Each structure stands twice: as structure tokens, then as C-alpha cells.
């Protein structure tokens, strides 16, 4: 799923990593790479153009300049914009307030409509609904039978006209509008709370098919019209989507065959071009290969970034701006970094939540899983206890902490002297790093992480 796009974007961000500041040239190079990756993935040209412009504008703006880590901030921006082109918030099915909820499916032949009807029915059934499928694809010889088989697999009823001139419901078998209407009536009578209407598709968009779909829509007034699109059809996706949007004014998009190894980017354009949300993803031939589409999670998957977003958000939330400003001023004034500062930073880190959980959200965390499992949260408590056992003078002038003071501090905080030594060593390293940062004019990082 979007593998090559994902690889390309990740590689682009890798080039940025470790850069303390981003120049306009860095930003331009990055945006160029992103644009190429999207175009190569078949994302529609106007969508790419707008996307790239938004990224560039934001990347050169204040939010990146003020960021603790500019390259991470860029990833965050790309992620947010990606969520936006994928439709923003997760959009669930709108259920009817009275009577059955009517869902109509539209799309080209082979898009995956009939399969989707079964998937949707099974999914809804698992949630306690009692869906019925209605076969209105009367063009393709096998379509009705295929829907019946799918219904059987999903364990739901199927309403279909019998072959011949009229059905058992006296519905002319050749008239999909009448079948749709009768199907909805059947649902009312048999108390099905959801009706899923499968319609005919053609290999290409044609006026007759669109007219038929439009007439079905007018006859049954569905709560949702889902446009099913094969994710593998490339740049044609956008034209097809626009045609269907004009023809049946669909309310949501289903991306099918997302399991394929295709570039898939065209599918990414559909929500953006039509302004209609992607609601479901179909990811295989089995009825269970189906999921509610979450733009945010899909974006994370494409960017292969773990749950870094939550991580950054939590860090932002926990980051005490006043404390950060106080620290920044200290550096500007080249004041000494003290053990009190060290402790304050430690507490800021702790405010973000469980260290282990936070670290597990890092991309690449899987590689260091074992070390993370062994991480001891109480380490921060011990550091705090040790610093608190020092006198105020010791905290600002740690050089005076000799052997007997160390023994006293260890006794006071209930740790072994070696732990006091270890902390002082880490502090000395942090202090050195801070001095370097201050001279370089950078923002303070988070030194002295235990472990
Ligand atoms: P329809 O003509 O729009 O009703 O499309 P169908 O439901 O008949 O699907 C066309 C073909 O695509 C069938 O062979 C399905 O098994 C296959 N198909 C449908 N959805 C998916 C999917 O999500 N992934 C894959 N790999 N194949 C699918």
C-alpha cells in the first residue's frame, strides 16, 4: 500500500535529519523531492501543485523557524497536509433517523462494487445491523448471481429479480430503477435497517449508465452514495471521479484494491479533487479485507512515522514555554547550566507522560524494543531525589561536591554513591553540551536523559 511513495518520502526526510536550521534552499530541495514523489505515484497534477505550495509556505514560516527540531516539524506539516488531502476527519456512515438507511454504490465495472457490497454488509452486520443487498446491476449477465453469492458469504439477505420477464415481486427484471424501489420497499417490510444497492457499471463512463444511476438515486433518495474506485487505475481516476460526481453527486469515496502494489497516488487525489471524503478502504478479495478509512492513520502509514504525531503533540503540550524561554535567555547570557536546570529539564520530560510509552512511539522504536523494555521509569525519581539532597550551593557549583559530600547526598537520597557519581558525570556532559549549544546559538535540547 503506497509502498514506493512511502519509501520516497521517508528518504526525503532522512536527508533533512540532523539539520539544526533549514535554509530556503533546504526547503526548496525537500519540496521538490516531495513533488516528484507524488507525481511519480500518480497523484493528480493540480493536487500536487497545491500540496507542494502549501508545504513550502508553511516550511518557510514561523512554526518551523521556532521549532525545536525543524526537520521533524516539516514531517508534521507534510502529515497534516496529507491528512487534509485525504479528506480531513474520519467520516462515518450517516444513518437514517427513521426507516432504513439506504446506501447506493456506484462506479465503473470491475471497480469492486459487488465485492464491497458484501464487505459492507458483513461489517454492518457485525455491528448489530441487519442489512439487505439489492441487485440493480442488470446489465452484466452474472452480476445478480455474483451478488447472491456475496450475500451468502456475508450471511445477509439479497433482493434480486428472478430471471425471466418479471420477478416474484412483479418487478420488471430489466428495470433497475423499479428493482431499486422494490428492494427498499422489501427492506421496510422485512425490517432491515440498512439497504445496500449495487448498481451497474461500464468499462468507461457513458451517458446511459450515468443516467440510470441518476434515476436510481432520485427514486430511492439514498442516505449515502458511495463511489467505488479501483486504486490502481492511475491518472484516469480523477476524470472518472469528476464524471461520477457530476452524474450522481456521490457523498463518499471507497478506495478499492489498496492491497495492490500499484502506485495508488491517483486515489489520493480523488478526495481533494471532488471535495468528498474517502470513507472506506478495500484491501483484498476476502470480505474481511475492509476498513474504515482514517485519513490521519493513512497519512502516518504513508510517512512510515510510527505515531510520531502524538509524540510531538504531547511534547508540545508538556513543554513549558516560560521555562523554555528562561532557559533560552540563560544561554543567550552564557550563564552556567546548573543542577537545578538539569532537574527542571528532567521534569519537563516527565510531564510528557510515561517515558517508555513515549519512546515506543518513535519511528524505528521496534529496533530498540529490547532496550526500551528494560528502561526503568524510576530512574527519573532517583535523579530527582539525588538533586534534592544537595544544598542550593552544591546545585549551582557542583565542582565543590567532593567525596564526603557525595556520601552525604547518597545517604540523603537512599542511593548508592556510584549513582551519585553517575549523575554528576551525566550532568557534566550535559553542561558541556549546553555550553556548545549556547556558543552556537542553538536551542537547548534535552540532555541528561537517564539510562
Ligand atoms: P464490480 O464490477 O464493481 O462489481 O467489481 P467486483 O466486485 O466484481 O470486483 C472486480 C474484481 O476485483 C473481482 O475479481 C474482485 O474479486 C476483485 N476485487 C474487488 N475488491 C478487491 C480488493 O480490494 N482487492 C483485490 N485485490 N481485488 C478486489
Supply database-style keywords.
binds guanosine-5'-diphosphate, Rossmann fold, 3 domains, 8 strands, alpha/beta, 451 residues, 434 Repressor (Amino-terminal Domain)
Set down the secondary structure blueprint.
Blueprint (H helix, E strand, L loop, with lengths): L2 H14 L7 H17 L4 H15 L2 H4 L4 H16 L15 E6 L6 H14 L4 E6 L6 H12 L2 E3 L16 H15 L3 E6 L7 H14 L3 E7 L5 H13 L3 E5 L8 H10 L3 E5 L7 E3 L2 H9 L4 H11 L2 H12 L6 H13 L3 H6 L8 H6 L3 H11 L3 H5 L6 H11 L3 H24 L11
Parallel strand pairs: 1-4, 1-5, 2-3, 2-4, 5-6, 6-7
Antiparallel strand pairs: 7-8
The structure holds guanosine-5'-diphosphate.
The site of guanosine-5'-diphosphate (GDP) has 18 residues, from helix 6.
Following the backbone from N to C, one meets helices and strands in this order, namely HHHHHEHEHEHEHEHEHEEHHHHHHHHHH
**Segments where pLDDT lies below 50 for 5+ residues?**
441-451
- Helix/strand/pairing category: alpha/beta
Percentage of residues in DSSP E strands: 5-15%
Task: Give the total of domains.
Answer: 3
Query: How does CATH name the architecture of the largest domain?
Result: 3-Layer(aba) Sandwich
What gross morphology would you assign?
A: elongated
Q: For the CA atoms, what is the radius of gyration? A: 30 Å
